[in-house]
Specification:
With 460 residues, the chain is an alpha/beta fold. The chain has helices spanning 13-27, 113-123, 147-159, 179-187, 223-238, 262-270, 297-310, 344-348, 382-388, 393-403, 446-459, and strands spanning 2-7, 32-43, 46-57, 64-71, 78-83, 95-100, 130-135, 161-164, 201-203, 207-211, 215-216, 219-220, 244-248, 272-274, 289-291, 314-318, 328-329, 335-336, 361-365, 370-378, 408-416, 428-432, 438-440. It is 27% helix and 27% strand.
Length: 460
């Protein structure tokens, strides 16, 4: 049978190796993993919108395919299927995997809470799938985990999520066994900073109240707390609490509650109440995922993969649309997070020009001493993409020229979509159209030309 890996992310060989190792061990298969390469698959010189992964040898597995998908709301990073034919929404995956590069070192919340709601949401589509939180850690972590990290991990373990990619001390990280244990653990954690609303659990005979702010930017969109409150309530239900669960101090008004919100959907499934408000009825999307044939990232992920697979160039930063933002990689191999604001104080005071504009992808061509800053867009928004190229001064001055002073910087746009067969604008370096045609721009970076030529030669 074939192994099918469906993902919203740009697939990384390091992560794929962890997934394949896990698969082989779980199945009891004898397998060898050499250098993994991701190959865009061509048919009659056109991209088939599938990738083949080579470098894994197992007599129980025919081929490994990777395809780009999107979720309708809250989608994990990978669904893995082991079957002959290309998966459909009716097929059952063997793994649902959420990948994160973030742990305690950067944020107490995003490492755990912001992803918890994905597993709660997933459960209602695939209740028997093996759920995995995969840590692809890239910077040094704290020696001692924070209480928030311990609390979140213990809940994930209780919910049935397996942790891969980092060592867990079994004396510290064990699943909660009772409602009392969970509430007692939360009580002894540090409260939120002054001015914030802490998450506090209060249990009475027929109700558990949980305080937590859910409003942000004038709507129900406080992602860390959505994740935290979702998984707390889901674990309380799994531990046997059948009575009322009520969220207090949420900051919401009735006008903020829309049935399309992922938290509203979860609240309906778990019978969570919002104090003082009427929860609208919400049905989950019928389909958990669909194959992506529209997203701008189809173009940027393609050029990213083909450059890394068919040249000596590689990415030093990636922020593909809808995917997790990566680190900037220095010439010494250090991974550093990019600043969000050129002046945080002025930005918070209302000057939105102080936000740092970043490319969707930065590629390095060592042979030619060139760095390529790439803005990804759908074809119909190409003029907007060209305009955005003008906004990269801060990142070029403070990062690229600082860490790669001898390199020439090129700015270009990569497009996806349309039926067009040629590119007129000189600012556009590459177009992947909806037929899979590979169209180079008039002034395409040399590494683009090299990568496409080598790809075509490989499949000819």
């Amino acid at each position: 049978m074939n192994l099918w890996i469906l993902t919203e992310e740009r697939p990384k060989t390091k992560v794929l190796k962890q997934i394949l190792s896990k698969f082989a061990v779980d199945k009891g298969f004898c397998a060898f993993i050499d250098t993994l390469r991701i190959l865009p698959m061509l048919e009659n010189s056109k991209f088939s919108f599938s990738y083949e992964l080579i470098g894994f040898r197992c007599n129980k597995v025919n081929k490994i395919f990777i395809k780009t998908v999107s979720g309708h709301s809250s989608f994990v990073d990978f669904l893995v299927f082991f079957q002959d034919k290309e998966p459909t929404i009716k097929d059952k995956p063997i793994y649902a995997i959420e990948e994160t590069k973030t742990d305690d070192s950067e944020s107490r919340n995003t490492g755990i809470y912001q992803r918890c709601s994905k597993f709660v949401f997933l459960y209602y589509y695939y209740p028997n799938v093996k759920m995995i939180m995969l840590y692809n850690l890239q910077i040094e972590q704290k020696e001692r985990p924070t209480k928030t990290n311990i609390f979140g991990t213990k809940m994930l373990l209780m919910f049935g999520v397996e942790i891969l990619g980092k060592q867990l001390d079994s004396d510290i990280f064990s699943p909660f066994c009772s409602i009392k244990e969970l509430i007692d653990f939360k009580k002894q954690m540090h409260n939120a900073p002054k001015g914030n609303i802490p998450i506090i659990l209060k249990q009475r005979v027929d109700i558990i109240e949980i305080s937590g702010k859910l409003i942000k930017g004038g709507g129900l969109s406080h992602d860390p707390n959505i994740g935290a409150l979702s998984v707390i309530c889901a674990v309380l239900r799994k531990l046997g609490w059948k009575k009322d669960l009520v969220i207090t101090k949420h900051g919401l008004e009735q006008k903020h509650l829309k049935g399309s919100n992922k938290f509203i959907s979860i609240a309906n499934k778990l019978n969570i109440k919002l104090k003082g408000l009427n929860l609208p009825k919400a049905e989950l999307y019928q389909d958990y995922w669909h194959y992506d044939k529209n997203g701008e990232k189809l173009g940027t992920i393609f050029i990213h993969i083909v450059v890394e697979s068919f040249t000596k160039g590689y990415s030093i930063f990636e922020n593909h649309a809808g995917s997790e933002k990566g680190y900037f990689i220095t010439a010494k191999g250090e991974h550093i997070p990019l600043a969000k604001y050129s002046d945080r104080v002025k930005y918070k005071a209302g000057n939105k020009d102080k936000i740092v504009r970043i490319p969707d992808l930065i590629l390095i061509d060592f042979g030619r001493s060139e760095i390529i800053n790439i803005e990804g867009k759908k074809y119909q928004f190409r003029k907007n993409g060209i305009e955005k190229l003008k906004s990269y001064d801060f990142i070029e001055k403070n990062y690229i020229k600082k860490y790669y002073p001898e390199f020439t910087i090129i700015r270009t746009v990569v497009l996806y979509g349309s039926k067009e067969k040629e590119i007129i604008e000189i600012e556009i370096g590459f177009l992947l159209n909806e037929y899979g045609d590979l169209i180079l721009g008039i002034k395409a970076p040399a590494i683009f030309k090299e990568a496409i030529k080598n790809l075509l030669d490989f499949w000819s």
